[in-house]
Fold this protein.
Amino acid sequence: MKVISSEWKQRMVIKINDYHDLKKHFTVNSDYAPASKWLCKMLADYDIPFKAVNLGAGAMRITTDICTCPVCKRPLTGGNKK
């Protein structure tokens, strides 16, 4: 059974709460698949829009900033801007 650090989970919950309270966007890079899946599930449960980008070699970038390209950081035109 694969275990996710409880300290990491607590840091992510704080980031999720900051997003809810302050609309403060965050980006997380993870190379541990169970942790990435857990974070995506938490964001979906809280109805927070997010992007998950595969960076290769098992790494993933998860971001709540859906109006900016997660790779080059340029603003995206069109789409859902909240």
Summary: Residues 6-63 form one domain. Strands lie at 27-30, 51-56, 59-63. Residues 17 and 23 are 9 Å apart (CA to CA). Helices lie at 6-22, 33-45.
